[in-house]
Automatic annotation (TrEMBL), chains A, B:
Name of protein: TRAP-type mannitol/chloroaromatic compound transport system substrate-binding protein
Keywords of this entry: Signal
Domain of life of the source: Bacteria
InterPro entries: DctP_fam, SBP_TakP-like, TakP/all3028, TAT_signal, TRAP_DctP_sf
Gene3D superfamilies cross-referenced by the UniProt entry: Bacterial extracellular solute-binding protein, family 7 (3.40.190.170), Periplasmic binding protein-like II (3.40.190.10)
Keyword Signal: yes
Source organism per UniProt: Kaistia dalseonensis
Length: 347, 347
């Protein structure tokens, strides 16, 4: 069957630009945007082309959202929590300390009302969000010396951003904002004492093991952070329906792809880092508990003065209670038994 | 820009039929096929229509793959392990006892070579597979009496299928093949002693709690089972590239959607089942260990006589070792600390 003329009008040739918050060297998190753009092209017979630009090619990485808000570019690939300076509600779309793990985050966003609630909020910035990547739970970062107690955190200069930094401030940490490329020399000179980045695969590229070998886990401030594709709302609304569908489906596929790539690469990188001398250690329960209590204070204070934050936070927290109960049954015991077998070198 | 005439030819009107292995009442696992078909339609401006049929509308649920192999229908939505009677290799595409959890399964399929290896195998049945749903780790099923030791499994008549049944046979279980609708009366009469189905949300619908209240976890034979969309290879190869891309992306989105829906519904259903009198209990470490040893025997025997199985199994096992190591760090400790907070009713 040949298509009627109306069809041709529904498949216009469109070229967009996407600005990423990441450098090309981070092939998984930056690569997620390229995977996304390739799928959109494939889904539209090459008619809808989205060209991906690395951080600083058009705007600096942390201005990606602004560039979409003000229509400098049609879309970006970034992490919502980078923009907590505008409003802490941005954090919830990505990850908040002691929030959801990756599966729970996806469940809440796609089927628990999270995407709708965040889009109501994002609309105030002229953007619509699509989950478009996830790193899995991150590591807690690299420290120049051992951190055993909450007292060891006092005065610690740590490269840690946004909402997590606010929480850590309550424990005496002095948060530092430092771009990725400047972290290594700062750690080497001792200008800072610690730095969190992502996880084994990305962290290995920056060489931290040589200057700050204590590698703590988990990164309790991001148990399953979402990377978003943000689209300028007016530009999105002007698209033909099939192109809107292409953005939505390609973003969902990229969400799965990025996590899968991290889950393949991180185990190998962790093994290599261990061989290079990384001392891989868990945060103590004392530190985790104090951090949780500090986070609860921050949530209480923020909810009291910011109704937008409270609305989305309350939805996430209601789901978290149920999800953390269920997680202990089928999935949790399966994982724990497999860990037990792994420790016995049976798998 | 108006499209050139060539475009019209690349967007033909196509109508396909998809046969599901599931009844409409299972709105999540059956619903995954409807979610998929809707996205394919949206992505192609309504030109590529896939009509979804429930089990038994065209062919019985367990003949879905055959109907695609022999081109009765263009595609199906089913679980690969239903077809282990043809070849045990089918099991690996979905889930094998003590195999991968959901995240690991996706990582291995999409980025660890799993999809390619399985497609080489599926090609022998004239089909190509696309991951198109996941239930998360399943529950271990409903038992009429408590099962504390391996001795309690001896002679137990249990509704459990395929490869898992083969493994359980080594522990003295007598596997029974019973269709979903016939399980309840068999449990009620005592014709069988136990039955595994899916998880809280689906299990609740069949009312098992009234006749077999001991609800064990985890379903160690499916830590993260994939539901597949299978497409007849000749039919797939004849599609325009954008329609192939639509199938691939829509399936990946449905994979995420189904898990998200289960992750929203299962916690609520577990709480309701508990209120209805379900005695929710973990399998003992003795039972899990004996089952693991039995599974290892089956894998050894199967690998020795089936090179197709061995090739795919070896790939999965190589990844499992690394993944189960990494899983214990960032994600595992994050989840365990959240469980600890949940047990203290702090989240």
């Amino acid at each position: 069957t040949l298509a009627a003329p109306a069809i041709a009008q529904s498949a216009p040739e469109i070229k967009w630009r996407l600005t990423s918050s990441f450098p090309k060297s981070l092939d998984t998190i930056y690569g997620g945007a390229e995977f996304f753009a390739k799928r959109v092209s494939d889904l539209t017979d090459g008619k809808f082309q989205i060209q991906v630009f690395a951080a600083n090619e058009i705007v600096p990485g942390l201005q990606a959202l602004d560039a979409v808000s003000n229509d400098t570019v049609e879309m970006c690939h970034t992490v919502s929590y980078y923009y907590v300076g505008k409003d802490p509600t941005f954090a919830i779309g990505a990850s908040i300390p002691f929030g959801l793990n990756t599966r729970q985050q996806n469940a809440w966003l796609y089927m628990g009302g999270g995407n709708q609630l965040m889009d109501e909020f994002y609309a105030g910035y002229n953007v619509q969000g699509f989950p478009c990547g996830n790193t899995g739970a991150q590591m807690g970062g690299w420290f120049r010396k051992e951190i055993k107690t909450v007292a060891d955190l006092k005065g610690l200069k740590m490269r840690i951003g946004g909402f997590a930094g606010t929480v850590m401030t309550k424990l005496g940490v002095v948060p530092q904002q430092i771009a990725g490329g400047d972290i290594y020399p700062a750690l080497e000179k001792g200008t800072i004492d610690a730095a969190e980045w992502v996880g084994p695969y990305d962290d290995e590229k920056l060489g931290f093991v040589k200057v700050a070998p204590y590698y703590y886990y988990p990164g309790f401030w991001e148990g399953g952070p979402t990377v978003h594709a943000f689209v300028n709302i007016d530009k999105f609304n002007a698209l033909p329906p099939a192109y809107k569908a292409a953005i939505e489906s390609a973003a969902a596929y990229a969400n799965t792809w990025m996590l899968a790539k991290y889950d393949i690469e991180n185990p190998k990188a962790l093994i290599r880092l261990h061989a290079q001398g990384a001392k891989v250690l868990p945060f103590s329960v004392e530190i985790l508990t104090a951090s949780f209590n500090a986070a609860e204070e921050v949530y209480k204070e923020t909810s009291a003065k910011n109704p937008k934050f409270k609305k989305v936070y309350d939805s996430l927290v209601a789901y978290r209670g149920e999800a953390d109960l269920w997680q202990q049954y089928a999935d949790g015991t399966f994982d724990r038994f497999m860990s037990y077998l792994q420790q016995q070198k049976k798998v």
